[in-house]
Amino acid sequence: MKNVALITGASSGIGKEFARIHAEKGGDLIVVARSENKLIELKNELQGKYKTEVMIITKDLSNLSEVEEVYQEVKNANVDVDILINNAGFGGLGKFHEREWEKDLAMINLNITALTALTRFFLDDMVKRNKGKILNVSSTASFLPGPMQAVYYATKAYVTFFSNAIAQELHDTNITVTALMPGATETGFGSTSGMDKTDLFKDTASPHSVAMDGYNGMIAGKLDVISGLTFAQTLMVKAAPLTPKKILLKQIYDMQQEK
Q1: Distance (Å, rounded) from C-alpha 107 to C-alpha 218?
Q2: For residue 13, which of 34, 88, 89, 238 sits 20 to 30 Å off, Cα-Cα?
């Protein structure tokens, strides 16, 4: 396999679009998700259209024992990962004390721990080769506190600042780390999290445009890529540091009420 991109959460949404973009550019793929049937469909599509080589790994990355298994399967296949795209993640709407703890714990495991572990495993190999690119999918939520999605917003803040920090640590290498921060995007995230019934998801970006922005930013070695924001959302993000926190919290709280 050549020019290999490993993509988590590749069975749908932005992750699937990353896979299509990379295959169109002639790269090979390792696609990771829970749904084997969806990964097989994606493999058949990409191999048929682009003649690219696609390796499937079926894992639930919220189960931490399965995270290292991904790395071991890649090593056992004797494949070098040139690009790591940590895309898998999910959110959930509701007051923190009323939500099911098991769901929030799984969110932390997937959004933070799995992403960190996979970065650690594959980055070590990239450093030895002094070559590689990492794209971590965060969110514009990472700039803000998120009442009604307290855990999700906090996990994405971790992703952004973790990515930025290790990017600086690697400044004297040929390895780059990029954080992609989409706004509301037309994927299964909205319906899964319940956000599709809120004002924040009135105007959603296409997953292809978000993935393209992130992929191109990663190739260019950018630190941060913001994508998919409406004009009003852009203004809100820019104004956030200057807005009194109590006012900002109420604004976000109101925007995340189900209509």
Answers
A1: 25
A2: 238
